[in-house]
């Protein structure tokens, strides 16, 4: 099969589109015929070797951990008591998934993945749109709800709302009945207002800490500019501060009676299924920044690394 993979860690040129072996599935896995694969910033980090010392990956490595496609084969124990799948998967089912980082990824014609991570894709979305959802939306879900304990009626400040994670975070927080204050650059004001932010702050010309106070939760997706530490000033005692990137001295948060977590998203079929329901109810939409054929995975990484994507980047495997 064709895949976009790396033989060695390095820059964008190391990501090559070539023939590789069809993955085997274990008893608890399914094989997905991939129609489209989502691109996330972590794909570039892994490609560049940022996690090379962790022993997580073996080379050659097919990148990409978001996919949408159809079930092509099913492991012998899938559906048995040993595996509690989200649904009874059948050959031909149209699904989407955020797969485990430790395994070969989704920039390929086929993906082998644990069945309990696989969810029937939203009926209202194409395969290309569905592939844009899993990793970024599950990150936003775990930040807001699993860690941030967001509830209806609470006030949340979401930084970096024009990116993939931030865009889903705004919509999930609104769907949960929260009041959402969102930051982004001026050119993205109308876009993020369209996602539902109640108040917009241009972080390039305004200091958010002069505009906002008494929020229950702050979620920083991109970080930078010391925004995690600065966010402590705007959170109520007992509130939460969640960062997807930058770290913070926990002692500083404790002094302000704020609960701080630097999250690491975990693939989770239940979380993805909750997001799927909200998409099919029309409460969460997908904005595609750009779509490339699999053979142009290098260009997709260049777009992601520009840090100017508005919404999501997707590779189409079946065009
Ligand atoms: N910890 C985890 O488990 C986890 C999971 C997923 C993602 N992440 C991380 O979260 C971050 C966001 O991911 P993503 O998929 O949303 O990325 P993304 O889609 O590439 O984000 C792009 C957006 O970031 C904004 N941006 C770029 N540079 C910025 C800066 N210096 N200050 C403020 N905003 C800036 C831009 O918006 P404007 O042009 O409007 O500024 C752009 O629209 C990435 O660093 C990613 O690695 C972490």
Q: What can you tell me about this protein's structure?
A:
The chain has 319 residues and is of the alpha/beta class. It has two domains: 2-133 and 286-316, Alpha-Beta Complex (Quinone Oxidoreductase, Chain A, domain 1); 136-262, Rossmann fold. Helices cover 26% and strands 28% of the residues. The strands form three sheets. Strands 3, 5, 6, 7, 8, 15 and 16 form a seven-stranded mixed beta sheet that branches. Strand 10 (179-184), helix 5 (189-195) and strand 11 form a beta-alpha-beta unit. The longest helix is centred in the middle third of the chain and has 14 residues, at 134-147. Bound molecules: NADP nicotinamide-adenine-dinucleotide phosphate. NADP nicotinamide-adenine-dinucleotide phosphate binds at residues 40-42, 136, 139, 160, 162-166, 184-185, 188, 221-222, 224, 244-245, 263-265, 304, 307-310. NADP nicotinamide-adenine-dinucleotide phosphate is lined by residues 40-42, 136, 139, 160, 162-166, 184-185, 188, 221-222, 224, 244-245, 263-265, 304, 307-310.
Topology:
Blueprint (H helix, E strand, L loop, with lengths): L1 E5 L8 E5 L9 E11 L1 H8 L12 E2 L3 E9 L19 E5 L11 E5 L3 E3 L6 H5 L2 H14 L7 E5 L4 H12 L3 E6 L4 H7 L3 E4 L5 H4 L3 E6 L6 H5 L3 E9 L6 H6 L3 E4 L6 H12 L7 E6 L3 H9 L6 E5 L3
Parallel strand pairs: 9-10, 9-12, 10-11, 12-13, 13-14, 15-16
Antiparallel strand pairs: 1-2, 1-4, 3-5, 3-7, 3-16, 5-6, 6-8
Helix pairs in contact: 3-4
The protein binds NADP nicotinamide-adenine-dinucleotide phosphate.
């Amino acid at each position: 099969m064709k895949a976009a993979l790396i033989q060695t860690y390095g820059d964008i040129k190391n990501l090559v589109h070539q023939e590789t072996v069809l993955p085997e599935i274990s008893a608890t896995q399914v094989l997905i015929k991939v129609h489209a694969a989502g691109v996330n910033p972590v794909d570039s980090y892994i490609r560049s070797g940022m996690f090379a010392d962790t022993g997580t990956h073996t080379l050659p490595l097919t990148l990409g951990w978001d996919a949408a496609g159809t079930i092509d084969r099913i492991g012998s124990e899938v559906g048995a008591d040993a595996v509690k799948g989200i649904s009874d998967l059948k050959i031909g089912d149209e699904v989407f998934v955020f797969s485990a980082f430790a395994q070969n990824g989704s920039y390929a014609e086929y993906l082998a993945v644990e069945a309990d991570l696989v969810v029937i894709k939203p009926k209202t979305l194409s395969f290309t749109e569905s592939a844009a959802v899993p990793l970024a939306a599950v990150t936003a879900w775990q930040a807001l709800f699993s860690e941030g304990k967001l509830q209806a009626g609470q006030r949340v400040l979401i930084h970096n709302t024009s990116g993939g994670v931030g865009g889903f975070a705004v919509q999930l927080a609104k769907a949960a009945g929260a009041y959402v204050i969102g930051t982004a650059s001026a050119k993205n004001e109308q876009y993020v207002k369209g996602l539902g932010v109640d108040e917009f702050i241009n972080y390039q010309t305004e200091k958010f800490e002069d505009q906002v106070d008494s929020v229950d939760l702050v979620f920083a997706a991109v970080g930078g500019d010391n925004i995690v530490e600065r966010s402590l000033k705007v959170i109520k005692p007992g509130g939460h501060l969640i960062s997807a990137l930058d770290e913070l001295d926990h002692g500083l948060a404790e002094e302000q009676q704020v609960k701080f977590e630097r999250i690491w998203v975990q693939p989770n079929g239940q979380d993805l299924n909750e997001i799927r329901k909200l998409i099919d109810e029309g409460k969460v939409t997908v904005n595609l920044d750009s779509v490339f054929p699999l053979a142009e995975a290098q260009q997709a990484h260049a777009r992601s690394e520009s840090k100017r994507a508005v919404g999501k980047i997707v590779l189409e495997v079946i065009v």
